[in-house]
Amino acid sequence: MTNFNRARRKYRPRKIRLLLIAESPPSSGGFFYFPMTIGKDHLFRETMKALDLWPKNEPMRKAVDKRPMLLRFQSMGLYLLDTCDFPVDKLRPMKRRKSVLQQIPRLVNDVIEADPLHIFVLKSSIFNPVIIALRDSGLS
To answer: In what order do the strands lie in the sheet containing 18-22?
Structure first.
Protein backbone atom coordinates (compact mmCIF):
# COMPACT_ATOMS: atom_id res chain seq x y z
CA MET A 1 0.00 0.00 0.00
CA THR A 2 1.39 3.43 -0.93
CA ASN A 3 1.83 6.30 1.51
CA PHE A 4 -1.02 7.99 -0.34
CA ASN A 5 -3.40 5.10 0.30
CA ARG A 6 -2.30 4.74 3.93
CA ALA A 7 -2.98 8.43 4.57
CA ARG A 8 -6.31 8.30 2.74
CA ARG A 9 -7.63 5.23 4.60
CA LYS A 10 -7.25 6.97 7.98
CA TYR A 11 -10.09 9.29 6.99
CA ARG A 12 -12.44 6.91 5.21
CA PRO A 13 -16.01 7.36 6.49
CA ARG A 14 -18.05 4.30 7.40
CA LYS A 15 -20.72 5.39 4.94
CA ILE A 16 -19.58 7.56 2.04
CA ARG A 17 -22.25 10.11 1.16
CA LEU A 18 -20.22 11.91 -1.51
CA LEU A 19 -17.17 10.52 -3.25
CA LEU A 20 -14.93 13.09 -4.92
CA ILE A 21 -12.77 11.76 -7.74
CA ALA A 22 -9.57 13.64 -8.59
CA GLU A 23 -6.93 12.89 -11.20
CA SER A 24 -3.92 11.95 -9.06
CA PRO A 25 -1.86 12.92 -6.04
CA PRO A 26 0.26 15.97 -6.86
CA SER A 27 3.97 15.69 -7.58
CA SER A 28 4.52 18.62 -5.18
CA GLY A 29 3.95 16.37 -2.16
CA GLY A 30 0.92 18.37 -1.00
CA PHE A 31 -1.38 15.34 -0.92
CA PHE A 32 -4.97 15.97 0.20
CA TYR A 33 -4.82 13.47 3.08
CA PHE A 34 -1.32 14.20 4.41
CA PRO A 35 -1.60 15.76 7.91
CA MET A 36 0.28 19.03 7.30
CA THR A 37 0.21 21.51 4.44
CA ILE A 38 3.35 22.18 2.42
CA GLY A 39 2.08 25.51 1.12
CA LYS A 40 0.87 24.11 -2.20
CA ASP A 41 -2.20 22.16 -1.05
CA HIS A 42 -4.60 24.00 -3.34
CA LEU A 43 -7.15 21.21 -3.88
CA PHE A 44 -7.35 20.73 -0.12
CA ARG A 45 -7.72 24.45 0.64
CA GLU A 46 -10.31 25.10 -2.05
CA THR A 47 -12.33 22.02 -1.06
CA MET A 48 -12.30 23.06 2.60
CA LYS A 49 -13.23 26.64 1.66
CA ALA A 50 -16.21 25.35 -0.33
CA LEU A 51 -17.32 23.38 2.75
CA ASP A 52 -16.75 26.39 5.02
CA LEU A 53 -14.07 24.45 6.94
CA TRP A 54 -11.04 26.58 5.98
CA PRO A 55 -10.63 29.61 8.28
CA LYS A 56 -11.92 32.84 6.71
CA ASN A 57 -9.22 34.99 5.07
CA GLU A 58 -6.56 32.39 5.93
CA PRO A 59 -3.91 32.16 3.20
CA MET A 60 -2.27 28.90 2.20
CA ARG A 61 1.00 28.46 4.05
CA LYS A 62 3.29 25.69 5.21
CA ALA A 63 2.66 23.61 8.31
CA VAL A 64 -1.10 24.10 8.70
CA ASP A 65 -2.47 21.10 10.60
CA LYS A 66 -5.07 19.59 8.27
CA ARG A 67 -6.18 16.83 10.65
CA PRO A 68 -9.10 18.69 12.28
CA MET A 69 -10.48 19.61 8.86
CA LEU A 70 -9.93 16.07 7.56
CA LEU A 71 -11.87 14.70 10.54
CA ARG A 72 -14.76 17.08 9.77
CA PHE A 73 -14.58 16.09 6.09
CA GLN A 74 -14.79 12.43 7.16
CA SER A 75 -17.63 13.08 9.62
CA MET A 76 -19.65 14.65 6.78
CA GLY A 77 -19.38 11.35 4.86
CA LEU A 78 -17.01 12.82 2.28
CA TYR A 79 -14.11 10.93 0.73
CA LEU A 80 -11.65 11.61 -2.07
CA LEU A 81 -10.16 9.04 -4.42
CA ASP A 82 -7.60 9.63 -7.15
CA THR A 83 -7.98 8.09 -10.59
CA CYS A 84 -4.23 7.42 -10.66
CA ASP A 85 -2.47 6.25 -7.52
CA PHE A 86 0.73 8.09 -8.52
CA PRO A 87 1.37 11.71 -9.61
CA VAL A 88 0.72 12.43 -13.29
CA ASP A 89 0.69 16.23 -13.25
CA LYS A 90 4.25 16.53 -14.61
CA LEU A 91 3.81 13.96 -17.39
CA ARG A 92 3.49 14.93 -21.04
CA PRO A 93 -0.17 15.10 -22.16
CA MET A 94 -0.24 11.77 -24.04
CA LYS A 95 1.53 9.87 -21.23
CA ARG A 96 -0.74 11.54 -18.67
CA ARG A 97 -3.90 10.50 -20.52
CA LYS A 98 -2.56 6.97 -21.04
CA SER A 99 -1.78 6.69 -17.32
CA VAL A 100 -5.30 7.81 -16.43
CA LEU A 101 -6.87 5.31 -18.82
CA GLN A 102 -4.69 2.47 -17.49
CA GLN A 103 -5.66 3.25 -13.89
CA ILE A 104 -9.42 3.49 -14.46
CA PRO A 105 -10.12 -0.24 -13.86
CA ARG A 106 -8.49 0.03 -10.40
CA LEU A 107 -10.49 3.19 -9.72
CA VAL A 108 -13.74 1.45 -10.70
CA ASN A 109 -12.98 -1.34 -8.22
CA ASP A 110 -12.22 1.24 -5.53
CA VAL A 111 -15.50 3.06 -6.23
CA ILE A 112 -17.48 -0.19 -6.11
CA GLU A 113 -15.83 -1.01 -2.77
CA ALA A 114 -16.54 2.50 -1.45
CA ASP A 115 -20.25 2.19 -2.36
CA PRO A 116 -20.92 5.95 -2.25
CA LEU A 117 -24.37 7.51 -2.40
CA HIS A 118 -23.13 10.18 -4.84
CA ILE A 119 -20.05 10.71 -7.01
CA PHE A 120 -18.50 14.00 -8.16
CA VAL A 121 -15.64 14.01 -10.69
CA LEU A 122 -13.44 17.02 -10.00
CA LYS A 123 -11.53 17.43 -13.25
CA SER A 124 -12.95 17.85 -16.74
CA SER A 125 -10.08 15.98 -18.44
CA ILE A 126 -10.95 12.76 -16.58
CA PHE A 127 -14.72 13.21 -16.51
CA ASN A 128 -15.70 11.29 -19.66
CA PRO A 129 -13.42 8.25 -19.27
CA VAL A 130 -14.28 7.93 -15.57
CA ILE A 131 -18.05 8.31 -16.05
CA ILE A 132 -18.11 5.89 -18.99
CA ALA A 133 -16.17 3.26 -17.01
CA LEU A 134 -18.40 3.69 -13.95
CA ARG A 135 -21.56 3.37 -16.05
CA ASP A 136 -20.15 0.33 -17.88
CA SER A 137 -19.55 -1.30 -14.49
CA GLY A 138 -23.20 -0.84 -13.54
CA LEU A 139 -22.85 2.29 -11.42
CA SER A 140 -25.06 5.23 -12.28
So the answer is: 78-82, 18-22, 118-121
Total domains, the chain:
1
Q: State mean pLDDT over 101-125.
A: 97
Whether the model pTM is above 0.85: yes
Enumerate the β-bridge partners of residue 36. Answer: 65
Residue (of 31, 52, 49) closest to 40 by Cα position: 31
**Confidence bin at 122 (pLDDT 50/70/90):** very high
Task: Tell me how crowded residue 32 is: count the other CB atoms within 10 A of its CB.
Answer: 22
Integer angstrom CA distances of residue 104 from 22, 38, 69, 118: 12, 28, 28, 18
Would you place residue 1 in the very low, low, confident or very high pLDDT band (cuts 50, 70, 90)?
low
Give residue 132's domain range: 3-136
Reported residue count of the chain is 140
**65: enclosing H helix or E strand:** strand 62-65
